[in-house]
Amino acid sequence: MLWPGLTHWVAAVFLCRVASAQYTSDQCSWRGSGLTHESHSRDVEQVYLRCSQGSLEWLYPTGALIVNLRPNTEPTSGASSGLHACIKPQTDSRGSHLYLERAGQLRLLMSETEQAHGRVQCFSLTEGALFIEAVGQQDISKRITVFQYELVASHGPGAHLYPHLNTGTASCTPCTDDQILMAVCTSDFAGRGSIRGVDMPSSSDHSSVAVTLSRLFHQKSGVFSLDGARGKGWSGRLNTPLRCRLQPREKGEFLFTGAVRFGEAWLGCSPHYRHFLKLYRTALETGSNPCHMDMDTD
């Protein structure tokens, strides 16, 4: 559907008078200012980002941006097939509406007001490019559009850890033995520990699980920190969808694995640790373990 009042942008998409605004950019992130082409309020600027994650910061928005998100691979490789882009705006993001643009058609993804909630929105790369339209304002001095993005394979490793993807993946289904062995190798974090408690806020679609680790095998982005109170071990919080109904009183030690999304840890495979040890021993004996981990096997 073509949204009323946006007809002039359709012509701009095809004729695309690309603005020569000053900006800083690498293949992952972009930072620019609308002040450099304020006199051309209908300019459309093309932005190309070629990373699995990054950010965009548009100071004093005027005109519009077309943001092309793609993995850093050859176009003929087919790596974009099945990929979703997930956008998380900062809660103070202002000054623009976010649309998806494909063949001159614009579909609203997030309004300026909705961005203030800071909720994640995902879309398939096949749905089009991200079109960011500046909201007309007399005073743009306090308007900055800021968001982070991540590219996620809808049916690849880690997709079931991402509740914002409406792919039909059963994120609460227990992992198979093969998935457990692979998860300890490929997840963003893996550790041995126990559950301290589960918080279930009424205004959220996920619960927060407080855990203590006696052993941290590996982690990404420092989601676990040394437990200063006890002087040993690690502590942190793991998110999990509310529908998974993790019980706060589950006892024993677990293997915790998962993914880091926008700086937050999401729980993936989490079998009892003794079950994992049995699997790992068998895999070592048969030579079928996907990777070697330096861990206790007793």
From TrEMBL:
GO terms for cellular component: extracellular space. The keyword Aminoacyl-tRNA synthetase does not apply. Keywords: Disulfide bond, Hormone, Secreted, Signal. GO terms for molecular function: hormone activity. GO terms for biological process: energy homeostasis; positive regulation of brown fat cell differentiation. Residues 1-21 form the signal peptide. The keyword Signal applies. It is found in: Secreted. Belongs to the meteorin family. This is Meteorin-like protein. It comes from Oncorhynchus mykiss (Rainbow trout). The lineage of its organism: Eukaryota, Metazoa, Chordata, Craniata, Vertebrata.
